[in-house]
Amino acid sequence: MSKDILKVGDQELGSRLFLGTGKFSSTQAMIDAVKASGTELVTVALRRFNRDQAEDDLYGPLSQLENVKLMPNTSGAMNAKEAVRAAMLGRELSKSPLVKLEIHPNPHHLLPDPIETYEAAIELVKQDFLVLPYIPADPVLAKRLEDIGCAAVMPLGAAIGTGKGLSTAEMIKIIIRDANVPVVVDAGLRSPSEAACALEMGCDAVLVNSAIAAAEDPAAMGAAFKTGVEAGRMAYNAGLMPTSEVAVASSPLTSFLSSDD
Amino acid sequence: MKLTVNGDEHIHQGGGSIDALLKELGAKKEHTALMVNGTVVSSEDWNSTTLNENDEIEMLVFVGGG
Q1: A2 — pLDDT class (breaks 50, 70, 90)
Q2: Is residue B49 part of a domain?
Q3: Is residue B66 assigned to a domain?
Q4: Do A85 and B25 lie within an 8 Å CB cutoff?
Q5: Residue B15: domain span
Q6: DSSP A13-51
Q7: Can you give the pTM of this predicted structure?
Q8: Contact B6 A51 (CB under 8 A)
Q9: Which CATH number covers residue B49?
Q10: Contact A208, A225 (CB under 8 A)
């Protein structure tokens, strides 16, 4: 079987599980989960340098990993201008065009600002970034972002860190139907079965952070998500059976047991 | 030379090179992204950049994030 490669722009990925690196109890726990998950793409954030918190600097540990690309996010940006600046700073370190564009000015719900995201995406595409915007599950916005050159779209399943799963499934199905770029469910997933569902629906990948980082055993949960994502993708490729409003028997209903003779 | 680094006042003892500032603060060159007065300065341009009195510098590193 030929390998099922995901292409994001010119970047090729052998895993459809993207992993966030936040919220882990330690750098080692994060590295162990990254390895167990089989991910080839991890997100990172930017923070002011602090000599007293040198252990939080992930550049060293992550650059040791083989076959794992870094995708800086623009977390903390309140508007398009700040997001563009954050993306440029991130690219300085990652040496990669991949950027997760996220602008969510309200800390209470962390929902993406679609207008600032759209404006930032235009500028970042001009600057040759491969832009993966974190967006509300809005099919119109997703299409508009594809039209201006985003390399993928990343609709949320539920609000960041809530673990409420694929609450936007119906909208995501519409996004998938119309999309010509990869669709990645980003945020909200709690369990490997939800990741499997997303892939079965036709999502190209999922981005998971809290579900793995906040698990009792993050490495084991990373491995479980790996299996869930692979199962979902295999099922999608295999083609799910059609649904029916009436029962369709799996066994022959012949009447040889009937005693009416 | 008085600078503002990550929001705090910093008295720089060297001649204003970025390398000297990073060493002074204990930051690793390849781990650090830099803005001077709101403009991103690529590491390729660090050698040709000289800091000036009252410059505002942001030094960023990668940390965990989703």
Answers
A1: low
A2: yes
A3: no
A4: no
A5: 2-61
A6: ES-SEEEE--S-SSHHHHHHHHHHHT-SEEEEEEEE--G
A7: 0.93
A8: no
A9: 3.10.20.30
A10: yes
